[in-house]
Amino acid sequence: MPTADAITTPATDSRPIRGEPIVEARGISKSFGALEVLSDIDFRLSNSEVVCVIGPSGSGKSTLLRCLAFLEPYDHGSVYIDGQLLGYEERGGMRVRARESRVDAVRAPVGMVFQHFHLWPHRTALENVTEALRLVNGLSRHHAEAEGMAMLERVGLAERAGHFPESLSGGQKQRVAIARALAMQPRVMFFDEPTSALDPELVGEVLDVMKRLAQDGMTMAIVTHEMGFAAKVADRVVFMDQGRIVESGAPETLFRHPKSDRLQQFLNTWRERHID
Amino acid sequence: MLDLALLWETRELILQGLWNTVWICFLGCLVALSLGLVLAALRLSSPRLFGYPVACYVELCRGTPLLVLLFLLYYGGPSVGLRLDAEIAGVTGIGLYGAGYFAEIYRGGFKSIPKGQLEAARMLGISHWHALSRIQVPQMLRLIVPPGTNQLIILVKESALISIISVDDLTKNATTIVNQTFHVIEPYLAVALLYWMLIELIARGGYALEKHLANREPRPVTRQGESAHAHG
Predict the structure, then answer these.
(1) What are the pLDDT digits (tens) for A2-24?
(2) How close A107 gets to chain B, by Cα (Å)?
(3) d(CA A192, CA B120)
(4) B156 belongs to a structural domain
(5) Domain limits at B79?
(6) How many domains is chain B built from?
């Protein structure tokens, strides 16, 4: 497992080892009542790969990410993290829900960043980052704080360590949330619309942090509306509509030569709105 | 004119009443606060088994007068083999009655913590227990201080009803003085003032607790802070 240092130091090869998937979904479906929000999705995320998931709202892209993290249990199919089935266990030929501790263990390599940050408002920026280090990894206060400060420095917020979330800007909150996830040394980071709740002028600082993470070789799955960012940073873009993956491929082919009418239409709408 | 000498002469009865009101309210509120927490925990716990009975209890508390509950306990109790001292019936009544309200206050506190904060905790591997004790409870405590203070004040005021089941509380002793001296204004005014002081004390305590639990910022960061590089 790469350490935090290994991530901080840019890898010698900008795009290291490829191939084996860290996250793999096979034929997953999910319904909320009668509404099927995901149908028969296959998804792979390989080492150091950056995948952006785009699509209109209600297309199921956030639900996909949440199912991959098992924050929403999927109904059918399988999600594997590092080859281990997430959320369920086979017992006597039957599939049963796994215990919470088992779920935690399987998804330990996954860090998650949410649209609305979900920082704990009664804890300072530093305490938000050190909480899991202390409670889960059992680090002493001293070690956890040293580690936490290092993480805040990575997102450029060390001088804000003692501030509570309420006095941070949206962009700063999201950077603290990224530092909090990074502190647990994840091998994969999931971003669920990380800039959608931000004022336009604060989007850049968050995207910059994410771009640097990508350059450092972090494996990332990003649900986003930031097409420019997807075009520049993603290795692969996945377009979803109505609970299905309609198209997926390298950003340049996907954005320049969309195969499906639906994606063409989606891109046209987006361009019309961003023409100036 | 007000006859203040009268109050001095009857001070023992007034002080005895004050003491009884204080300790009965204190114990009653303690029961209400702790039983309310248990009820809220039962209602929010994942097997929904207790949800309905607790909800019924809450509705019953809110739907019936405290005085009726006190009558049931004190006058009705003996016919089902429950013989309570008037004071104990008072404590029990205030406790059971207040618990219904506090259960809702706690529940409201828990419910207003965004679910996403717990998802963030889950994704970091933080256990349910730690999420509860380190993330939910501290925030819940902050959220419930203002409504909780309010509820305590209401309970203390409503405790005057225990005078009707013959507890020698402030209200009853004031009435006794009125009956003995035929002075109405002085005893009741004195007692009103004492209730007010008692409640003012609770209100101030509430504000102090609110302030104590609030975020104090910015917290100085001693180490490494100044060496931080800015990032655009």
Answers:
(1) 444 444 444 444 444 456 789 99
(2) 8
(3) 12
(4) yes
(5) 4-214
(6) 1
> Is residue B136 in some structural domain?
yes
State how far the Cα of A153 lies from the Cα of A212, in Å rounded to an integer. Answer: 13
CB of A69 less than 8 A from some CB of B: yes
pLDDT of residue A239: 95
What is the model's pLDDT at position B226?
Answer: 41
Q: Which amino acid is at B55?
A: A
Whether B230 is in a domain gets the answer no
Average pLDDT along chain B: 87
CATH number at residue B165: 1.10.3720.10
- Measured between alpha carbons, how far is residue B187 from residues A119, B23, B73, B200, B216 in Å? 55, 21, 29, 20, 45
CA B230 from chain centre, in angstroms, equals 48
A162/B220 Cβ within 8 A = yes
DSSP string over A127-149: HHHHHHHHHTS---HHHHHHHHH
For chain A, the average pLDDT equals 89
And the tokens for B164?
Answer: 């009707």
Q: Residue A114: which of B120, B124, B217 has the nearest Cβ?
A: B120
Q: Residue B83 has what pLDDT?
A: 87
- Which residue of chain B comes nearest to A182, CA vs CA? B124
Q: Cβ contact (<8 Å) for B123 and A131?
A: no
State whether residue A99 sits within 8 Å of chain B by CB.
Answer: no
Whether omega before B218 lies within 30 degrees of 0, making that bond cis, reads yes
CA distance A248 to A258: 9
Task: Specify if B231 maps to a domain.
Answer: no
pTM: 0.81
A236-241/A244-249 β-pairing: antiparallel
**In chain B, what residues touch A159 (CB-CB under 8 Å)?**
221, 225-226, 228, 230
Q: What is the nearest CA distance from B49 to chain A, expressed in angstroms?
A: 21
Mind listing the pLDDT tens digit for each residue in A226-265?
Answer: 999 999 999 999 999 999 999 999 999 999 999 999 999 9
Binding-face residues of A in 147-206 toward B, CB within 8 A: 149, 152-153, 155-159, 161-164, 166-167, 177, 180-181, 184, 205
- Digit-coded pLDDT (tens) for A23-75: 999 999 999 999 999 999 999 999 999 999 999 988 999 999 999 999 999 99
Instruction: Kindly tell me the sign of the dihedral angle through the C-alpha atoms of A216, A217, A218, A224.
Output: positive
C-beta of residue A240 within 8 angstroms of C-beta of residue A53: yes
Chain B contact for A92, CB < 8 A?
no
Please identify among residues 100-139 of chain B the ones whose CB lies closer than 8 Å to any CB of chain A.
114, 116-117, 119-128, 130, 134-135, 138-139
